[in-house]
Amino acid sequence: MFAAGTESAGWFLEHAWLIPLIPAVAFFLIIGVGKRLPRGGSEIGIASMLASLVIAAGTAYQWIQRVDAPVAEGELGLSRASAGFGRVVSEKVATEGHEVLPVINSWNWFDIGGLKVSIGSHIDGLAVTLLLLVAFISTLVQIYSTEYVRGDRRYTHFFASITLFSAGMLTMVLAPNMVQFILGWEIMGLCSFLLIGHWWEQKANSEAALKAFWTVRVGDMGLLVGTAALLSVFGTLEISEINEKAANFAGDNKGMLMFAAVALFIACIGKSGQFPLHTWLPDAMAGPTPVSSLLHSSTMVVAGVFLVARLYPVFHVGLDINIAGQDFNLIAVIGGITILIAAGLAFVQDDIKKVLAYSTVSQLGYMMLGLGVGAWTGAVFHIFTHAFFKCALFLCAGSIAHTGSHHSFDMKTDMGGLRKKMPVTFGVWMVSTAALCGVPFFSGFFSKDEIIDSAKYNDYKLFYFVAIIGAAMTAAYMTRATYLTFFGKARGGAAHFVHGDDALATNAHDAHTVDAHAADAHGHDDHHAPAHHSAPLPFAKSDSSWQITIPLIILGVLAVVSGYLNAPALGIHWFEHMTESSIGSGTAMSVPPPPKFTWAAAAPGLLLVALGFVVSLALCKAVFGEKKNALQGLTQRNVLLGAGHKFLVNKYYLDALYEKVIVHSIAHPISRVVYWTNQNILDGMVNAVGKGGKRSGEFVYKYLDQGLVDGAVNGSGATARGAGTALQPVQSGKVNLYGALLFGAAAVGALVLVLVNS
Amino acid sequence: MLINQFLILGAVLFCIGVYGVIVRKNAVLVLMSIELILNSVNINLLAFDRLWGGQVDGNVFALYIIAIAAAEVGVGLAMVLLIFRNRKTIALDDLSEMKG
Amino acid sequence: MLASEVQVAQNIGFGIIAAIMILGAINVVRSSNVVHAALSLVAVMGGAAAQYLLLAAEFVAVTQVLVYIGAVMVLFLFGVMLTRAKLGKDVDLNNRGGALIGVPVALLLLGVMSYVLIKGFEDTKLDPDLPPTSTAAVSDAIFSVYAVPFWALSFVLLAAVIGAIVLARKD
To answer: Which alpha helices (H) appear in C31-146, and where do they start and end?
Structure first.
């Protein structure tokens, strides 16, 4: 309920800036006193995330109320009232069309040459979605981490970094202007680096962290260039103003707007792991599993998608999305390519986390594709649902490693047949996989299907086919992963677990030597002093401890249930209703509404998914099963299939291209030139200065010191001696001479006297 | 008589005496040259005394000069004798002990 | 005799005596015989005495003869004898190159003095009518005005006598 004027929009909406502030403060507290606390600082982390979650929930509640509030009569106008200390509250009155206006609170941060940069919060449906999502998933992952990284050598720093990450992402999500957005973006990048390289003592981990950082940094150039371009086109960095101006764009520098859109999208390519900058995401699995589940699946990697969704008018107008007759645009193309190549790569991975990583890349491709074809709601809702089931999948993988496979993530050597002994993990995994594959009535179905339908309806036919093929591939590779992990015969570490002593099942890994861990590519924490593990859930005694399983269960439930917030199949459009005012609308852009769902339209996609599942299951049983048949070892025998397999295993040789060709060809000549410059020019200058100094010193010595100064001194001596020698005859000792001198002087004196007086 | 007669005569004798002091090597001859000088001074004094009549200062002065000259010669010759006894020579340039 | 005549005679007398004196003086400084030099000095002193008479300084003239010629010159001759001066010609009496310095200096002095004298006393004549200096006046002056120098002089003479004895005695 609000009227024109400065009436408050609700305590949570007004104080939403607390949401990132509390974790930020917690970060400093953890760094400062975390080590001394009984639980190593994780108390502060979890407490701060819970506080943020509560406030985010309150914000969501008040936003829902705001959206549902009756439209008040009034004028469309912007009233910005100053509420002291440079704090500006923006209140617009809702008018027709049920456009719910965001709640913007900002304080003046700094002033550069007339450009005022503020810091504060911009709360609308999109922001609320992400705020709630990040706070919730962060809380769950932090609880999970208390068990997963127990005994780690840098336990406190882990929690500090993860808390800082949450603070950064929350800052970015509710940023009212691009500067705060970039601030949050960069904090996330830093934390990603810190967390991927958490076990940096193993070189592979630190290299993965650096690769992630540099690759995303390449994209970040686009972010800065794009922001500058936005500033030049719109003259402001406030997101609400940019969106409004872009939506009603009527200027003549459309080219600059497109340039800004492309530049910003490059940043999204880097951050969200799109082709061609996707190579860092699989390597980022070197970090601990909670990091993979929080950052690199549900929250950080969707920052790029969030950027496009946040500034959608810029992209929609700049890249002419949904303009009649357009078949493809940059975002859709990149998204489509990403879907397919990531899905292809997921087939040849032995590491379960890498499968999930490629799956994440593929799903991010879906989100981008959605935004590229005008399915804004579908894409954003997919962010929402994907976060739950992907996080759940990663946490399951962590649970398996922690309990079932002796910290190994290799499906082929250390997993298999785990479903009986890890029922909770298995159940959550199956539910999440179903959601991921888009099985009807799981959450993923509703969000993914909306994207696929929009692609078809909005005349992006090619991408429709890409999307459904991608869905089929998703089903196929997840079946393979599931089969290798939970079915079949238990191998390696899993064998130990499954067939080992029941009583020691949960603590089995305590007794293992270091050797079992050393071979692992992921650097694991040293388990030299493991505390006793927490109790598992009473109905799943052989599964992981409750800190692991309870978050799993929560996420599993959400993987099923969250989809019902926006289920076109059932006529529910609630989520769409809550967030549609964030899409932006104006004279220059019109986003088509989500298409009406019909089972007939969805049928081809579903059929392909089912086909993918069946074919994959058959192949799995054949290749990985126990009975010998012709399919086993096929890729080694058949040259063509073998070459294809190798191509996939080497990740399309993209890594080789980037590192060995591009980076090497730029870095090595540069380094050679720099070295030459250093040795010859810089050192040459230094040496020349030295030589010059030496020679000038010699010159000074020889000519000035010896010649001039000593010469003067010697000369004065010689002069004195000469004068003395010259005057010596005067003192001859001869009286006659004395007399002569006497009289001569007298004569001269007389002469002078005479002359003077005459 | 012109005063200048006496004065120039005195000047001439003076200069001859100076020449003698410079030229003569023998100590006794140097002393003799000095006597010439003193005599020329005496002539000068007496001439002026005569020029400005009514005073006798010049005469008195001349007498004193004569007395002093006598004393000086006495002591001087005693020294010359002593030098002669010690050095066996009174050639002034031989008596010099300066080294150049 | 007319005053002018007396002057003439005096002038002639002056001229002759002056010539003798100058010649004698030159002989003192240029003779190669020490004894001749001493005797020439005697002549100079005698001439000086005569000049004193021309200047009507009778007492001084007499004193000159008595003291200078009678005592000082004798002393000189004793000195010549006691220093074994070579009798006869002595070639080594002059400094080598002495004339080189002496002549210029002497000439310079002469020039300066002559110039000054001629310029200063061009035609000043001595008063011929002046009475001769009375000896009484001289003694009065000595013992009254110049008494202190007289005593000083007596000390000087005393010191000279004692000094000479001390210097020249042989033991």
So the answer is: 34-54, 58-63, 73-82, 98-120, 135-140
